[in-house]
Design a protein that fits this description.
The complex is a heterodimer of chains A (about 475) and B (about 300).
Chain A lengths: L2 E4 L5 H10 L3 E10 L2 E10 L2 E8 L16 H11 L31 E6 L11 E7 L2 E8 L7 H5 L8 H5 L6 H15 L2 E3 L1 H29 L3 H22 L19 H26 L2 H4 L10 H7 L3 H6 L30 H22 L9 E3 L6 E8 L2 E10 L2 E8 L1 H13 L7 H8 L4 H4 L1
Parallel strand pairs in A: 1-4
Antiparallel strand pairs in A: 2-3, 3-4, 5-6, 6-7, 8-9, 10-11, 11-12
Helix pairs in contact in A: 5-6, 6-7, 6-12, 6-14, 7-8, 8-12, 12-14, 13-14
Chain B lengths: L1 H14 L2 H13 L9 H10 L11 H20 L15 H22 L2 H32 L4 H7 L9 H17 L27 H26 L6 H25 L8 H21 L4
The chains are: A alpha+beta (about 475), B mainly alpha (about 300).
């Protein structure tokens, strides 16, 4: 169960500072209403577990912690736009979810001789989600990048309010197609956490299988997309084919290419008998061999590898400072993976993937994904050795009004917080790996060549939809 | 023979779209896709031709003049480039430097149109095109110089005739020229590793960028001009730097085979190579210039001649 600690406004900054000094990491913050008063809550993550610090913001303002932890920047900007909270100390507090016309309200001021702006999106030429990129460039060199997302803000979190625990699941799922399992699983874990429930062994393995299948097709897709970013057709075609085979496996085993509807709250929603597990396992073994062969081809493609090194570098210090998660953070040398601390899933003795030389560039992110694919294949092979039964979550603790779930999506740590009012959802907050990584992408792009940006962007391959919600 | 060549030259205007079309088809097969038919460019041209052009706000004469001007430049280039060593008389002569000038004029017209529209992507791409063409034009002139040296003339017909037979290959200069001409073809046709003709990523575009603001008939002109560039470059390359001998009929046959072979090479390169980092392109073209300069130097010194 997630511990919750209430602090007074004057103790807010000190509490966070102490927690960070004690080795805890910031895992997201969100605004909610408690007895009609706005409350600001932050999730702190340590190897021992999760902790939520809650602080009333009765007058609608609360001291900013962005100087202590830069990763809280987007959370504060969002809360300002969507919940009207003010954060003294966070200056300038730029718009995030809101789209003001005045450029000064959302853009970094960049000026100088020969400096100009290049605007890209929100409508793109390819099949790309809506997002606006404002590059400040000099010649071909990117000086700074401002992002404007939230074009597809659907108000899912607000729409989920008032539903019961199981009913809210659909809202978490519709946040994003490619992270459907991660998002619903984080939601289910949050509701179970609040309900004092712990999944049994069957449920844990079934959910782990689903999460890894999602990672599988995402990582295959991402490697192919990186090849497409530099016009390397053999790589992009090979990995597109592998990705489709992975999605066909999803379709055959669980009836949906994106694994929609495969997670339930408090119980399992999928079942796989012995013959189906054998068939799935066999198909995955074939896919594994073909993936390894396709990856070897990429390793020996000189013109492709020449594009990777030293491009889009995210250093270890910057990754830590900006709160980067997932493959992007691990490629920068941060050995953090939620799978290593997931008692609610079947990851026993899990070691996060790491690189011998975590250079934090495009090449490192590609190689890290290839290493993670190996892990995923091995995990799936082990978990599919026996049939999957639905399983259920059993009561182990008292119920609470707040629960937090945290899972590792293909893009990094995804956090879901659910506050319950009786059986109803009073507040839902979904903070995905993409949400955590967008600021890191903007940082990594600076200093690079403009025509290299599509490649850098694809090496992060972040979602827009689950950020916009 | 000249009359027949003139007919083939004019037919070049109609046959040109077949070249990018067949490269596209070949490429798709090499990548394990079914791909479009080699005739797809004709369908695209037909579709675009029937549509009206667009007139973006704030643009003027430079914008609407550019597509017909670019097409006219390429049409003139078709008239200049001989076929199998012969050419009809179109009153434009057959000087290699006129060809260089026409290609440069077409490039300038498009860059000026990008300036007229003020479109960020178009301007960015045009700026890249101009930056790269500083090296590209030097390379083109040097390569043509190698061919001109052995012909003692800058007349493309004489250059083609001088490149016939096996004797020319005994000196290193011609080999250098042939090697460098591959780079010229890659640059002028806008193909990988220099540019990616298939990309939708505006930020990476070079040749496609200035086309973004065009539609309908104007775009048809520009698409045709891009195809004609393929024709001009491949026909020229096959005549100047691929082995050919015998009479007119044999030369014509070898020319067809040569152009088809070059299409295959382009498809192969585009399949096997990722796009270069943009600031490496001048270096690549610089290497081409060094090779041609070495060729010229060896010719002057009489090595192997």
């Amino acid at each position: 169960m997630t511990a919750i600690e209430h602090v007074a406004p004057h103790a807010w900054r000190v509490t966070v500072a102490d927690a960070l000094a004690g080795g805890e990491r910031f895992g997201g913050a969100w605004a909610s209403r408690r007895d009609g008063h706005p409350t600001w809550r932050a999730l702190l993550v340590s190897p021992h577990g999760l902790r939520v610090v809650s602080c009333p913001a009765s007058e609608g303002h609360l001291e900013s912690i962005v100087d202590l932890v830069e990763a809280a920047g987007w959370d504060e900007r969002e809360a300002h736009d969507l919940h009207g909270l003010e954060f003294p100390g966070h200056s300038p507090l730029r718009a995030l979810a809101a789209h003001p016309e005045d450029p000064a309200q959302w853009m970094t001021p960049v000026s100088g001789d020969g400096v100009h702006q290049v605007a890209v999106g929100p409508i793109h030429a390819g099949v790309i989600e809506s997002g606006h990129f404002r590059f400040h460039v000099i010649g071909e060199r990117i000086l700074a990048l401002d992002l404007r997302l939230f074009y597809k803000h659907r108000g899912l979190e607000r729409a989920a309010e008032g539903r019961d625990g199981a009913g809210g699941l659909a809202y978490a799922q519709r946040a994003c197609g490619a992270c459907a399992v991660a998002n619903t699983l984080a939601y289910a874990q949050a509701v179970e956490d609040a309900g004092g429930l712990q999944p049994d062994r069957e449920l844990r393995s079934a959910r782990t299988v689903l999460l890894e299948l999602e990672r599988l097709y995402n990582h295959l897709h991402d490697i192919g997309a990186i090849c497409a970013g530099v016009g390397f057709a053999p790589g992009s075609m090979a990995f597109a084919a592998l990705k489709d085979r992975a999605q066909q496996i999803n379709q055959r085993a669980f009836g949906h290419r994106f694994l929609f509807g495969s997670v339930g709250v408090g119980c399992g929603a999928v079942e796989l008998d012995a013959s189906s597990t054998d068939a799935t396992r066999g198909a995955l073994r074939e896919l594994h061999a073909d993936t390894a062969a396709a990856w070897r081809e990429l390793e020996f493609a000189g013109s492709l590898q020449a594009r990777f090194d030293g491009v889009g570098v995210l250093g270890t210090a910057d990754a830590l400072r900006l709160g980067a998660v997932g493959p992007a953070a691990r490629a920068a040398g941060i050995r953090e993976d939620v799978r290593g601390a997931s008692p609610r899933l079947a990851y026993d003795d899990f070691t996060p993937a790491s690189l011998a030389e975590p250079t934090g560039d495009v090449g490192a992110r590609v190689r890290l994904r290839a290493i993670e694919l190996e892990t995923t294949y091995h995990l799936l092979d082990g978990l599919l050795a026996r049939p999957l039964t639905p399983g259920r979550a059993v009561a182990v603790a008292e119920t609470a009004t707040l629960g937090v779930g945290r899972v590792e999506s293909a893009r990094g740590a995804t956090m879901c917080a659910v506050e319950l009012d009786g059986a109803r959802v009073a507040r839902l907050r979904l903070r995905t790996g993409s949400y955590a990584n967008w600021p890191a992408l903007a940082h990594a792009a600076a200093g690079n060549l403009l025509p290299d940006f599509p490649l850098i962007n694809k090496s992060f391959e972040l979602c827009y939809a689950c950020v916009d919600r | 023979m000249n009359a027949l060549s003139a007919i083939v030259q004019i037919a070049g205007g109609a046959l040109a779209p077949l070249l990018p079309g067949s490269i596209q088809t070949l490429k798709a097969r090499l990548q394990g896709r079914r791909g479009p038919s080699a005739l797809q460019p004709y369908r695209t041209l037909w579709r675009l031709w029937r549509k009206s052009a667009i007139d973006p706000e704030g643009t003027g004469v430079v914008y609407w003049l550019a597509p017909p001007l670019v097409a006219a430049c390429l049409l003139a280039a078709l008239a200049i480039v001989p076929v199998a060593g012969h050419a009809g008389s179109f009153g434009l002569g057959h000087d290699a430097l006129v060809l260089v000038g026409l290609l440069a004029l077409a490039r300038f017209a498009l860059a000026a149109a990008a300036w007229d529209t003020g479109n960020g992507f178009a301007l960015m791409a045009a700026a890249r095109d101009l930056m790269i063409s500083v090296f590209g034009e030097a390379l083109l002139i040097l390569v043509l110089l190698i061919a001109a040296l052995s012909a003692h003339s800058s007349d493309l017909r004489a250059m083609s005739t001088a490149a016939a037979g096996s004797h020319i290959w005994s000196g290193p200069a011609h080999w250098c020229g042939a090697l460098a001409f591959v780079l010229v073809i890659l640059l002028e046709t806008g193909r990988q590793p220099i540019d990616n003709p298939d990309t939708h990523l505006e930020l990476t575009m070079i040749h496609e960028g200035p086309l973004l603001e065009y539609g309908g008939r104007d775009l048809a002109f520009l698409h045709w001009a891009a195809a004609a560039r393929h024709w001009v470059m491949l026909v020229l390359g096959a005549q100047l730097f691929l082995p050919h001998w015998g009479g007119f009929a044999a030369s014509l046959g070898l020319l067809v085979a040569g152009v088809a072979g070059l299409c295959g090479v382009l498809a192969l390169i585009e399949t096997a190579q990722a796009k270069l980092r943009i600031l490496r392109v001048p270096a690549l073209l610089g290497i081409g210039c060094a090779i041609t300069l070495a060729g010229v130097g060896m010719w002057v010194a009489g090595v192997g001649a």
